[in-house]
């Protein structure tokens, strides 16, 4: 990648690109990183606790995973400092070579595209349940045309999601991320309160598993944890937007974000599982009665949470397409406005293209349950494998003779 000198002076020769604005505060970085992780995976955690065989084994797997999740974020901040790149795929390509970089870009854009589709499907389902509550009808009487998911979801994309996704910098999302984080926290509090208050519809005693059925069932929740805690794709962009870009500062931001995320996920998983036991649904909100007003508010606020997470995912996917444009079309364009991929003449069409494509897939794909598992599997690459490769190659960039020779000889880093 441009600007990389293997075996050169390391951190001092590769200043990390910074945002053109005043920079992102530490608190803003915590909220954006937290909101990147708090997404649709929140609904699956009670079901994951059931699949793991109870609270203790699921919580143990979650805590062990948390150590590696935080380590991966810290490694990505260090790798961004060494490489001088401002995007995840740029860091991987700059440190690990063009072949690994292209593999990363392909996995990156497929993963983010599927996450965007999953987000829209979740929002569409919540809107559908909301209309069923507002305008109850009995078959064969159909719902009014304006309650159709194809109309409501399209209107939401045009009026809300597209304007939120238009800004050039990710720092703008710190305001919506605070709102989305509070919405996700409300859902966790509702699940805790419902366990203790025990409304009449939930008065039956749940059947709880005392131990996992097999040791493999404990690790079967690993893709759900990866899907739930996936914020590593946004880590480099957030780090490069920060006002204070020291590694210790970034480590503190990473620890605070994932500990807060772990608290929300654990409360949701534990109390959702204790409320319904083995009868818990994969979507925890589907286990509650549709007429409960508190749950309806939780549905609306969780939809708000997902809507505020979508622009962060789009920003990351758009950065990959902007890199494609810079390499393929930027130099060939005579107009200066089209040569700059972050300018409005390129950025806005790419944003519209992303929203349109994901909306079409969300409306016409029949089922996303299997895709969610695929998303969790691909996310493990960005959480564990690519950061590990970046760490190996980042250490090789330091002025240590034998490692530089090894790197040049084998061509891996």
What would your notes on this structure say?
This protein has about 425 residues and is mainly α. It is built from 16 helices and no strands. GO terms for molecular function: L-amino acid transmembrane transporter activity.
Let me know the number of strands.
0
Largest β-sheet summary: none
Structural class: mainly alpha
What is the percent of helical residues?
Answer: over 70%
Taken in chain order, the helices and strands follow as HHHHHHHHHHHHHHHH
How much strand content do the residues show? Answer: under 5%
Global Rg: 22 Å
**Stretches with pLDDT under 50, minimum 5 residues:** 1-13, 399-412
What is the arithmetic mean of pLDDT? 79
State the helix count.
16
The geometry reads as globular
Distance between the termini: 12 Å
Keywords: Amino-acid transport, Membrane, Transmembrane, Transmembrane helix, Transport
Transmembrane segments: 24-47, 59-80, 178-197, 217-239, 251-274, 294-317, 345-365, 371-397
InterPro entries: AA_transpt_TM (IPR013057)
GO molecular function: L-amino acid transmembrane transporter activity
Write the SSE topology.
Elements: H1 26-37, H2 45-52, H3 55-83, H4 88-96, H5 98-134, H6 149-165, H7 173-197, H8 215-219, H9 222-228, H10 232-241, H11 247-276, H12 293-330, H13 336-339, H14 344-364, H15 369-397, H16 401-410
Q: Summarize this, please?
A:
The protein has helices at residues 26-37, 45-52, 55-83, 88-96, 98-134, 149-165, 173-197, 215-219, 222-228, 232-241, 247-276, 293-330, 336-339, 344-364, 369-397, 401-410. By secondary structure, the protein is an all-alpha fold.
């Amino acid at each position: 990648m441009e600007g990389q000198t293997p075996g050169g002076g390391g951190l001092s020769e590769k200043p990390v690109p910074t945002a053109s604005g005043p920079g992102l505060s530490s608190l803003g970085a915590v909220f954006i990183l937290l909101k990147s992780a708090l997404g649709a995976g929140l609904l699956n955690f009670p079901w994951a606790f059931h699949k793991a065989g109870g609270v203790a084994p699921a919580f143990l797997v979650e805590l062990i995973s948390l150590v590696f999740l935080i380590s991966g974020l810290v490694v990505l901040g260090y790798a961004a400092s060494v490489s001088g790149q401002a995007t995840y795929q740029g860091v991987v390509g700059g440190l690990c070579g063009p072949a690994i970089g292209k593999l990363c870009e392909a996995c990156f854009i497929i993963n983010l595209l599927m996450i965007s589709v999953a987000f829209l499907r979740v929002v569409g389902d919540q809107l559908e349940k909301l209309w069923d509550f507002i305008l109850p009808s009995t078959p064969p009487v159909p719902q009014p045309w304006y309650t159709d998911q194809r109309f409501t979801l399209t209107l939401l994309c045009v009026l809300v999601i597209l304007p939120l996704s238009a800004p050039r910098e990710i720092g703008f999302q710190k305001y919506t991320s605070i709102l989305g984080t509070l919405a996700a926290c409300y859902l966790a509090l509702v699940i805790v309160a419902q366990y203790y208050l025990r409304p009449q519809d939930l008065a039956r005693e749940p059947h709880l598993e005392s131990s996992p059925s097999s040791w493999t069932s404990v690790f079967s929740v690993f893709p759900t944890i990866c899907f739930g805690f996936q914020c590593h794709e946004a880590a480099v962009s957030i780090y490069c937007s920060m006002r204070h870009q020291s590694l210790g500062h970034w480590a503190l931001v990473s620890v605070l974000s994932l500990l807060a995320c772990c608290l929300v996920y654990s409360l949701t998983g534990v109390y959702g599982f204790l409320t319904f036991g083995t009868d818990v649904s994969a979507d925890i909100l589907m286990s509650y009665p549709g007429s409960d007003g508190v749950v309806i508010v939780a549905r609306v606020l969780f939809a708000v949470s997902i809507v505020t997470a979508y622009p962060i995912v789009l920003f990351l996917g758009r950065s990959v397409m902007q890199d494609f444009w810079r390499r393929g079309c930027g130099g060939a364009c005579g107009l200066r406005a089209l040569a700059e991929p972050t300018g409005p003449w390129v950025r806005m069409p790419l944003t519209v293209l992303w929203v349109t494509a994901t909306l079409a897939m969300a409306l016409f794909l029949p089922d996303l349950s299997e895709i969610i598992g695929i998303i969790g599997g691909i996310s493990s690459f960005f959480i564990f494998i690519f950061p590990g490769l970046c760490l190996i190659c980042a250490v090789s960039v330091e002025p240590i003779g034998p490692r530089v020779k090894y790197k040049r000889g084998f061509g891996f880093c």
